[in-house]
Amino acid sequence: MANSDESATIYEVAQRAGVSIATVSRALRGTGPVAAKTRERVLRAVEELRFTPSRLGVSLASGRHAANGIVFPDLSGPYFAEVLLGYEEVASELGRSVIVLSTRGRAAVPDLVRDLAGRVDGMVIFGQTVRDEVVAEIAASGMPLVMIARGDAVAGADVVASENTESAARLATHLLGHGYRNFALAGGHDQGDISQRWTSIGRVLAEHGITPPEPSPCEFTVDGGYALGRYLLSAHHHSGPRPDVIVCADDQVALGVILAAEERGLSIPGDVAVTGWDDIMAARHARPALTTVRQPMRDLGARAARALDELINGVRDTPSSQVIPTELVVRASCGSHPLEEA
């Protein structure tokens, strides 16, 4: 029995009625084939559990809110700002307002996401910001859903992502061409797109007889990169030689690593090379300028907004899975390539 002080979930209704959550959604919305006896079981379970359908947007198929929801792990930093800007520009053109939920430091994230689902016509969720079971619950409820920068597909949801695997392999191959062999990876596995990059880099290193290092976790900020850089470059951290190249999960982490190297009197790229990912504006103006992978951050948000609008209106012009090309941008932070010097 559900707690009388809390609203039941669509999962509990489905379990009580002995059906799937998709069937619960169809029964409550009156869409799709549902047998009369099945609908009766669903409605009885809803009454017994005091389920509130609006929590998952079951009654929102008409799009009466004219609002979209977007869930990000954080709103600080240039990456999220660019993605959100691209999203809002298109949403504005389409006449939709945007409700943004940042989950950083928030308790009861699943409940906050369910509540947001009850106030919007469709949702965009970034990566692994929301637990998989909650994402599946929202998708199965029939709510239009688009995932940004997620490493794997979600049933019932569109996916918009940047290409990671090939560009990460190109980056690793380029660095090996410099002669670098002692790699460090800065930034953990907590986002699907970053995991794709580390897996691809690890594969290339293994092909060249190098044991791939475990990624070192840190916050995806300049301060996070600075703290991790101090650790990776500290004398007591290594039984052998320090890394000769630190590959960072994003440009902010890379800029922090550069600060840590400078503090320790190390030159870049003379003593240690550093690379990033994203190509934020600061990357090209850093000294040395940062080698990175350029991804279309604003286009990610714009495409997600258009895909969600198509899902809401039921008229599709774009594929359910979009992968946007990325580009390796070689600058001074990894040094002059030996082949370029020949």
The gist of it:
By secondary structure, the chain is an alpha/beta fold. The chain is built from 13 helices and eleven strands.
Write the layout of secondary structure elements.
Blueprint lengths: L9 H8 L3 H9 L6 H14 L17 E6 L5 H16 L3 E6 L6 H9 L4 E5 L5 H9 L4 E4 L9 E5 L2 H14 L4 E4 L5 H16 L14 H11 L12 E4 L2 H13 L9 E3 L5 H5 L6 E3 L2 H17 L7 E4 L2 E3 L8 H4 L1
Parallel strand pairs: 1-2, 1-3, 3-4, 4-5, 5-10, 6-7, 7-8
Antiparallel strand pairs: 9-11
Helix pairs in contact: 1-2, 1-3, 4-12, 7-8, 9-10
Mean pLDDT reading: 87
Percent range of helical residues: 40-55%
* Strand portion: 5-15%
The helix/strand series, from N terminus to C terminus, equals HHHEHEHEHEEHEHHEHEHEHEEH
What does the model show?
The protein folds into three domains: 10-51, lambda repressor-like DNA-binding domains (434 Repressor (Amino-terminal Domain), Orthogonal Bundle); 67-161 and 297-324, Rossmann fold (3-Layer(aba) Sandwich), CATH 3.40.50.2300; 165-294, Response regulator (Rossmann fold, 3-Layer(aba) Sandwich), CATH 3.40.50. The protein is elongated and about 75 Å long. With 342 residues, the protein is α/β, with parallel strands linked by helices. It has 13 helices and eleven strands. The chain has helices at residues 10-17, 21-29, 36-49, 78-93, 109-117, 132-140, 165-178, 192-207, 222-232, 251-263, 281-285, 297-313, 338-341; strands at 67-72, 97-102, 122-126, 145-148, 158-162, 183-186, 245-248, 273-275, 292-294, 321-324, 327-329.
